[in-house]
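To illustrate the input format used throughout this study, we show a single complete record. The first block contains the structure-token representation of the backbone; no residue identities are included at this stage. The design step must infer an amino acid for every position from geometry alone.
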């Protein structure tokens, strides 16, 4: 084993075996977790192919780290049209922090700063595959309080 071999991560694919998480993800997906794969790094990234409607997160929640969620079409001839809609709800639903729902249908990103209440998170009216990319400044995915 070479000195830097541990920095080469190959084939971190989860085919439903739940190797990287304790909750089910909906398709074969790729996980790069900082704690496990990057020698304790506080950065993780997940790639999931989405090709049907579903609710990824049903309840509102927070994280104690910043998070970015990208939506990218997998149609190389039309990189702008998602072929569906993605809705993210921000806010706690209180007078001080009312809920605000945002729906996107083009290449996009939701930035979720640490401590921001968000969810539900829904994929709907999907007519062609897209790539969901989830990046976080933490070594593993978890919700605040877990």
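Output of the design step:
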């Amino acid at each position: 084993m070479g000195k830097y071999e541990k920095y080469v991560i190959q084939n971190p694919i989860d085919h439903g075996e739940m190797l990287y998480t304790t909750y089910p993800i909906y398709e074969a997906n790729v996980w790069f977790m900082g704690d496990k794969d990057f020698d304790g790094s506080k950065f993780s990234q997940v790639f999931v192919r989405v090709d049907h409607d579903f609710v990824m997160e049903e309840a509102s929640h927070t994280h104690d780290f910043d998070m970015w969620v990208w939506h990218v079409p997998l149609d190389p001839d039309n990189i702008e049209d998602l072929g569906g809609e993605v809705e993210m709800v921000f806010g706690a639903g209180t007078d001080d922090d009312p809920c605000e729902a945002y729906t996107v249908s083009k290449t996009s990103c939701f930035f979720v700063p640490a401590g921001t209440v968000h969810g539900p998170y829904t994929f709907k009216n999907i007519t062609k595959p897209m790539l969901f990319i989830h990046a976080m400044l933490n070594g593993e995915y978890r919700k605040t309080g877990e």
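Structural context for interpreting the output: The mean pLDDT is 86. The longest helix spans residues 34-37.
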